Amino acid sequence: MGIASGSKDTDHLTKEQFLGLMPHRFSSRAEFMLEILRVFDHETALSKNSSFRYLMQNFGTEIG
Hints:
By secondary structure, this protein is mostly helical. The protein has a domain at 27-64. It contains four helices and no strands. α3 (42-48) packs across α4 (50-59).
């Protein structure tokens, strides 16, 4: 996608920081977010974001 994934976690990533990661090739924020959903990896999200992990453990499908 053209986004560096060096971040240890995303727990403290702000909306502004997130939008700052958007590569110039995307013409809109919606297009960028749709691409993220297209390549979304649940395992990576579980390991990098405690809120997502909590959500899945308490309200989502079983996560091992």
